[in-house]
């Protein structure tokens, strides 16, 4: 992964953007990593991977019986438990 200081990135923004199109760029400030910049295509791929992983986890929970239907009664019960907890704080 390419590394670039925040100072250089700001002074040479065009080069910074071009580098991010080719691959992730690690930005540093005072020699400490502070951010990673990726292309829009890479970002979209990461978002879709997270969504796919979340769907897979939800389906696994459903198949394992770890989920239950949210009804009006169960929602009211959860709200009452929450209100009791925050009243104690």
Automatic annotation (TrEMBL):
InterPro entries: Antitoxin_Phd/YefM, YefM-like_sf. Pfam families: PhdYeFM_antitox (PF02604). It comes from the Bacteria. Antitoxin component of a type II toxin-antitoxin (TA) system. NCBIfam families: phd_fam. Belongs to the phD/YefM antitoxin family. This is Antitoxin. It comes from Stagnihabitans tardus. The lineage of its organism: Bacteria, Pseudomonadati, Pseudomonadota, Alphaproteobacteria, Rhodobacterales.
């Amino acid at each position: 992964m390419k590394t670039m200081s925040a100072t250089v990135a700001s002074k040479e923004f065009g080069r910074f953007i071009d580098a991010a199109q080719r691959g992730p760029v690690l930005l540093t400030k005072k020699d400490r990593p502070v951010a990673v910049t990726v292309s829009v295509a890479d970002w979209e791929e990461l978002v879709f991977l997270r969504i796919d992983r979340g769907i897979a986890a939800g389906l696994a929970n459903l198949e394992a019986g770890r989920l239950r239907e949210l009804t009006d009664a169960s929602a009211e019960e959860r709200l009452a438990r929450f209100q009791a907890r925050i009243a104690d704080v």
